Each structure stands twice: as C-alpha cells, then as structure tokens.
Amino acid sequence: MKKIMTFALLALIALGAQAEEKKDSVAKKNKPVFTVIKQNPISSIKDQNRSGTCWDYSTLSFFESEILKATGKEYDLCESFVANKTYMERAIQVVRFHGDCQFAQGGSAEDVLATLKTHGICPEDAMPFPGSLYGDSLNNFNEFFSVLSPYVESVAKSSAKKLSGQWKVGLQGILDAYLGKCPEEFTYEGKKYTPKSFVESLGLNLDDYVSITSYTHHPFYTSFAVEVQDNWRFPHSYNLPMDEMMQVIDNAIDKGYTVAWGGDVSEEGFTRQGLAYAIDDKKTQSLQGSDMAKWLKMSPAKKRDIIDSLGCTVPEIVPTQEMRQERFDNWELTDDHGMLIFGVAKDQNGKEYYMVKNSWGETGDYKGIWYMTKTFIAANTMDFLINKNAIPKDIRKKLGL
C-alpha cells in the first residue's frame, strides 16, 4: 500500500510538471516578438517610486524629448522643482475653495506646462536627489503627505474669520523639507541661470502645446476642461472624434514627436511585464471553455495567468466612441497614470503597438518600456499633451490652430 501511494504521488507530481511545462510552452509561443516601425528619441528611464507623480515624470520626459528633437541635446529636468511649485499652488486653490476640492499627490500634464511658463525649471542635480532628505534612495511620499495633507486641510477648514499669510510660509517649509528648496540661481555647464532663464535656453516654444481628448458630452472641434479631479487647474482640451484622436498620435510619431499620454492602466490587460491589451472578456473566457459567470468569479491572479498564456493572441475589444463615453460616465475609464508614447512596433502577427516609456524604473520584460496595443490606447486614453505642429493640417484647421 505504501509503495502504491508513493507511485501515485510521483505520478501526480509528474503530471503537474507536464502541465506546467505545457503552460510555459504555450506562453512562450504566444509571447510577442516585436519589430520596431518607428522609434523617436527619449531620455533615460526614471523611477517615481512611492509617489503619485507620474504626471510630473511623464510630462518632463515629454519636454526632454521635445528638446532632443529641437536641439539634439539630452537634459534631465527636475521633477522635485515641479512638485514643489505645483503642491503649493494646488494648496492655495484648496484653501480658496474652503476645502471643497481635492488635495492629492496626482496632477496633470498641465501642471508641468504651467510650472515651466510661470516659474521655469532647473536640472535634476540643482536640487537634492529624490528621497535623500529623509534617508531614502528614491521618492517616498508616505510620511510627506501624512504631514502635508492634514496641514492643508486644517487651513482650508479653519474657523478663522480671516487667514494670515503665514500658513503659506509653514507649508513651504514642509515642501522644502521633503522635496528640497527650489533654487533661485544655479550653475549648469559653467553658466549661471535662474529657473526662468534656464527654460528660455532649452529651445522650447511653450505656446506650442495643446491637450487632446475625445468624448461626446461636449461638441467635437471645441475645447473643454476634462472633468477629472486631478485636472484642478481646469485647462481645456480639444475634443476630437476617437478616430481623429488616434490619427493625431500616429501622425506625431511619424513626424518625430512624442506624446504625453494620460489614461487608465487599471484594466486587467495592463500587465506588469510591459504589455497592455484591451481584453475582450467574453471572447477570452470562451477560449477557456468557461461561461461568463465563471470568468467573472475567477481571481485576478487566475485571469492574469490566462491572459499571460494567450499573450499576443488574446482577443481584444473593438473600441467605439459610445463605449468610451459610457465607460467615462460610469467611472470605468479613469485617470490613473501618465506615460510617454514615443514609437510604434508590430508583433509576429502584424498587430501594432505603441512603444511607451514608463516611470517605474527599468521594470518588466522590456526594462521600463511598455508595448500597448493601439486598441488599448484608443479605449483607455483620457487626454494627452502634444506639440500642435504634430497634429495633421486638416485636423488643425478644424480646431482653428
């Protein structure tokens, strides 16, 4: 009996090993093999670490690419400078609204553009390295915002009949303690600059940048402030039909520009390995021989295993304008993350993907680069910042640009 049990156990182990080998073989077969169609220059991969500053990293990365295109020179611009200025300005707005709006780590591409226009910028090494002031090797905003947020709320919700200006002095002290003090003057490559004179030296025309979106609750070819909480400055985005929104991205890449993209990465098809697909749940579950109810009850880990095994053969939805609007209105399409679109590639089946620079360090299978299908981008874009010269002429004419 003991021998029989031993043989049975060994048989089960062998069957399990064979199943695992089969699973690995399928996953390997379906792993995309990419051929680059067009790739525009980008600066080095950064790591936002434990901070909600993707908007900061992705948009400065966009401007670094704009400078590369204009001058051929690579810069490392300072995210802490932008965060310091932005959090003060956001706090001032929250106080003006008596706390009836959100104060948070997140932001939008407009925050970076507004900082460049109003305050200028400095290179990374003109301020303390992220995290270094509190003994960390990268940004960690846990303690920072546990101090900062209650401070702002206490001022905004104060019962005082009149506020003094000292609350700004105190807030600036917190910002400087965790992010570093923004320099009034610094030396770069042997030359002295102020933040404003430095931005003027970068070869950028800050009036060239516009935001694009695509929704039906506002008229097409007009502009409006996209209704998300981190769009707190209320900048306007030009509203295009979805197909034309995608034409803008394709034209930009083709003409050598990059795109500061903001959208939803909370979907099951966005993987930590560096891929993003707009999964069609119904078709995917049917491939597994299960009904929809069973698919919906699966754990996220089990779904990820199935999606990973299908790889580049995973079925995708066909995004529509109506679908985008419905998902925006029912809170499915959210403003989660900012990244930089800089190229186009295709897999072994001919499917096209955007090459996208992330700000999570050199993670995933592609060392900090994500390959996101054009379908995923069409379905999950909230808005994006772009050089207006990257927009096709016929669309620019419709927008009056």
List low-confidence stretches.
none
Briefly note the structural class of the backbone: alpha+beta
Total count of helical runs of at least 4 residues: 14
Q: Work out the number of β strands.
A: 12
Order of helices and strands: HEHHHHHEEHEEEHEEHHHHEEEHEH
Main sheet attributes: strand count, strand direction, barrel closure: 10 strands, mixed
Radius of gyration: 24 Å
Gap between N and C termini: 84 Å
In round numbers, the mean pLDDT is: 92
Helical content (DSSP H or I, runs of 4+): 40-55%
Global morphology: globular
Strand content: 5-15%
Protein model, in words:
This protein is α+β, with helices and mostly antiparallel strands and 401 residues long. Helices cover 43% and strands 14% of the residues. It has 14 helices and 12 strands. Strands 1, 4, 5, 6, 7, 8, 9, 10, 11 and 12 form a 10-stranded mixed beta sheet that branches. It has a two-stranded antiparallel sheet with strand order 2-3. Strand 2 (186-188) and strand 3 form a beta hairpin. Helix 3 (79-96) packs parallel to helix 5 (141-156) and helix 5 (141-156) packs antiparallel against helix 6 (166-179). The N and C termini lie far apart (84 Å).
